[in-house]
Write a structure and sequence with these properties.
The structure holds 2 protein chains of 2 kinds. Chain A contains 18 helices and 12 strands. Chain A is mainly alpha-helical. Chain A has 3 domains: 2-60 and 375-508, Four Helix Bundle (Hemerythrin (Met), subunit A) (Up-down Bundle), CATH 1.20.120.1750; 64-240, 2-Layer Sandwich (Herpes Virus-1); 278-369, no CATH class. Chain B has a single domain (2-148), classed as Ubiquitin Conjugating Enzyme (Roll). The longest helix of chain B is centred in the last third of the chain and has 15 residues, at 134-148. A 4-stranded antiparallel sheet of chain B has the order 1-2-3-4. Chain B is globular. Chain B has helices spanning 2-15, 102-114, 124-132, 134-148, and strands at residues 21-26, 29-38, 49-55, 66-69. The chains are: A mainly alpha, B alpha+beta.
Chain lengths: 518, 150
């Protein structure tokens, strides 16, 4: 905690201190710091607890990645362009076109260019050049696009295909705005593969269009590079670099955390789904989308025909059922054959009758797989629901921390344990959610039992913490409860790390055995 | 701006039309052309008369025209329905250039009737037949001409 005090002391924030001003007499200075929730760890799973050693340690399920902000992405492109510009001694805008053509693989570009410069230039859309002025007013010139000959300004790229500037503008506008194209805009001449370079473009179009053009170029840069991906969070403009290979996705679950705090899987882009591997997640989500609603309804409203197994909905009051498919007549109550009932069906006094009990057994069996699925699904969905309430929870925490500061005279830093606890809850629930999808596919064996033990430990700890967390503010101020919450938070985080590390190791070593393939 | 271009193109094509092709305007609308194309000699479509509609978008020539068969046709690259949508390289947004001309489009359609491109098919079954059972394909295409294009 001391180090945290120091860490905060250099920071100050205006604006949000008003909330606290009247209420706290001695702690006014801490109130200034209140705006700094944003400044904790980029890794919310281990907020600043007492265990600094645990916090810094790299876990076996962590992967290396780097966050790029928009300016970094621009710099990266510029650096590559400058390098190629110097090494190959070509214009910068042409270097950019070459790099894009080679999907930013600088080494391959340089190698190929050294071997066959003309062929490389040709295929990148920088074919044979004619020299001469680019912008020019020519008397008696007829533009081959609009057929106008009123002698306006004309333009030609190095390929020499000359059109009037108005046509160029319209053409570029159509490509950039309507088609979202930038890197692969060709000369307007039918069949000419010459690529529009950024310098020519800047000569021709308005600043708005130039900006859009460069935005699209940056987008293609990230999309072209295999190791770069956009952060999928809304309004986030960062990109993440991670070296994970597609073929390793069955062994590693590459969760990355953007500086905007969004945690997502680099492999498939959906929010953090450790410990379950991408393929499993994909299959599970599909299954849920296809089955869950239907399965729930079927489970609640139907039974199977004891003879042919068709699923039957009882939509009328009578218990005398006739299967539409096999014409079997049976009793909805006991599932026995109707003819054995005689007329006394409503007592259903044939409960012990053999035909009925066999039918019930068969039905039970056919329901097992459905119920197994629903077991996992319900727990998965429950944790997902909790995850959706994350934001709510976080805001509640914030309010609670303010109340607590007022009620107990604790400082901002002293109530941070609630924030830490809230973050731990969110992260752990996210993990728990996916452990249920994971477990659905596991075969029964000792490893699975160990996995479920770990899962149980984490779940119990999370529920216990959740309960403490919900206590009214008056009780939260109690020093003992504070210690309990801090201990439980750190325990939850530890259990999560253990579960994830264990699962990740087994995944990397390929020792899980699956009961259902995915 | 585009009016001059369209008018010139229309004038050129209607004054000296390429063999087997005739164009007219739909209700004097320069953005909507009616095209009548004779099935090229030597192809299974010979003897047939095909009506096509050519629509020039407001953005023309910066955006490609849209072409469809009004006469139903049995061909791998034209949908075998009342829409008659077609897949032809020159009209794709990545290959269309403002300096591409309608004449070239019409000639490309003629070429497509002479030489279907089964790898770019809209009708997979017809493409299969074209590749694996050429006599059967030609018979079916000729039958279709008799049925729809006479």
């Amino acid at each position: 905690m001391d180090s945290d005090d120091e860490y905060m002391s250099g920071l100050s924030s205006e604006g949000e201190d008003n909330i606290l001003q009247d209420e706290s007499d001695e702690e006014g200075s801490d109130g200034d710091d209140f705006g700094f929730e944003d400044d904790e760890e980029p890794e919310p799973d281990l907020g600043y607890s007492q265990k600094d050693s645990v916090k810094k340690e790299k876990k076996s399920f962590d992967i290396n990645f780097k966050v790029y902000h928009p300016a970094d992405i621009q710099t990266q492109q510029d650096e590559l362009i400058n390098e190629v510009n110097m090494i190959l001694d070509i214009r910068k805008e042409d270097a950019a076109i070459l790099l894009r053509h080679f999907r930013w693989n600088k080494e391959r570009l340089i190698e190929d260019y050294m071997d066959r410069p003309n062929k490389v230039l040709e295929s990148a859309g920088l074919g044979p050049s004619t020299s001469g002025l680019q912008l020019e007013s020519i008397m008696g010139f007829t533009c081959d696009i609009c057929y106008e000959d009123d002698g306006t300004q004309t333009f030609a790229m190095k390929c020499g295909h000359r059109y009037c500037v108005d046509c160029y503008k319209q053409y570029l506008g159509q490509k950039i705005i309507e088609e979202g194209e930038a890197a692969r805009i060709q000369c307007p001449n039918d069949g000419c593969k010459r690529i529009m370079d950024s310098k020519s473009l800047d000569l021709l179009v308005t600043a708005d269009l130039q900006q859009r053009y460069h935005e699209i170029l940056t987008r293609t840069f990230v999309e072209d590079k295999d190791h770069l991906k956009w952060c999928p969070a809304p309004d986030c403009q960062n990109a993440i670099e991670c070296g994970i290979k597609k073929k390793d996705l069955d062994k590693v679950v590459p969760t990355v955390a953007c500086d905007c705090k969004h945690r997502f899987c680099f492999g498939c882009g959906i929010p953090d789904h450790q410990p379950a591997p991408c393929d499993l997640v994909k299959k599970w989500l599909k299954k849920c989308a296809d089955d869950s609603e239907t399965a729930n309804w079927i489970s609640a409203n139907t039974k199977e025909c004891p003879k042919c197994g068709s699923t039957i909905e009882k939509n009328g009051g009578c218990n005398h059922m006739t299967c539409r498919k096999c014409k079997n007549e049976f009793c909805w109550m006991c599932m026995g054959i109707w003819s054995e009932h005689g007329t006394s069906w409503y007592n259903c006094n044939r409960f012990e009758e053999k035909s009925g009990s066999e039918a019930r057994d068969a039905q039970a069996k056919s329901r097992i797989s459905l119920e197994r699925y629903l077991h996992y699904y319900n727990r998965y969905a429950n944790h997902e629901l909790s995850a959706k309430l994350d934001k709510d929870l976080y805001q509640k925490t914030e309010k609670k921390m303010i109340q607590l500061q007022t009620a107990s005279g604790m400082s901002w830093i002293e109530v941070q344990y609630l924030n830490t606890a809230s973050q731990a809850l969110q992260t752990c629930r996210q993990t728990l959610k996916w452990t249920y999808a994971f477990a659905f596919y596991l075969a029964r064996n000792n490893l699975t039992i160990m996995f479920e033990d770990n899962q149980k430990d984490l779940e119990m700890a999370v529920e216990a913490l959740s309960e403490m967390f919900e206590k009214p503010v008056t009780e939260l101020a109690d020093a003992k409860l504070k210690v309990d919450i801090m201990d439980k938070t750190s325990y939850c985080n530890k259990r999560r790390v253990i579960l994830l590390a264990d699962t990740a190791d087994n995944l990397a070593n390929g020792v899980w055995s699956w009961g259902i393939s995915f | 701006m585009a009016a001059k271009r369209i008018t010139r193109e229309y004038a050129e094509i209607s004054e000296s039309p390429p063999s087997g092709i005739n164009v007219s305007l739909d209700n004097d609308n320069v953005h909507k052309w009616n095209v009548v194309m004779a099935g090229p000699e030597g192809s299974p479509y010979a003897g047939g008369t095909f009506h096509l509609s050519l629509t020039l978008p407001p953005e023309y020539p910066f955006k490609a025209p849209v072409l469809s068969f009004k006469t139903r046709i049995y061909h791998p690259n034209v949908t075998n329905d009342e829409k008659g949508s077609m897949c032809i390289g020159i009209l794709k947004s990545e290959s269309w250039k403002p300096s591409s001309k309608i004449l070239a489009v019409l000639l490309a359609v003629q070429d497509l009737l002479r030489e279907p491109v089964p790898d770019d098919a809209l009708e997979a079954q017809i493409a299969d037949k074209f590749k694996n059972d050429r006599p059967g394909f030609e018979r079916d295409a000729k039958d279709a001409v008799k049925r729809w294009a006479k």
